[in-house]
Amino acid sequence: MSEAKNTVVATDPYSPSTDNDNFHEEGPLKVTDACTACFEQRTVFTQQVFEKSLNKLVDKVPIPLLFMRTVIQALDTFPALVDFVMGILSRLVNKQVSYASWFV
């Protein structure tokens, strides 16, 4: 976890959504640690940053392994994202993304 936090702290504060997107390229344990560290830093990783990041992640092919975990964590942290998340889920349904790739 401390390695993930150090990565977040060392990142460019002007591009937090890009950093969050890049975390999804790592292994599952690193992704969960990095995302948790991001959610703890609400002054940098705001609701708007997560909206932007989730918008980028939903368009990746294939969908990132822990995408739905990140969506659920974003909803838990920012309940106002519910309408936005409904739009994201609608996009996944329209793309006919396999249900198995949504959850781990």
From TrEMBL:
Residues 1-20 have a biased composition (Polar residues). InterPro entries: Symplekin_C (IPR022075). This is Symplekin C-terminal domain-containing protein. Residues 27-97 form the Symplekin C-terminal domain. Coiled coil: none annotated. Residues 1-25 are annotated as: Disordered. It comes from the Eukaryota. It comes from Zizania palustris (Northern wild rice).
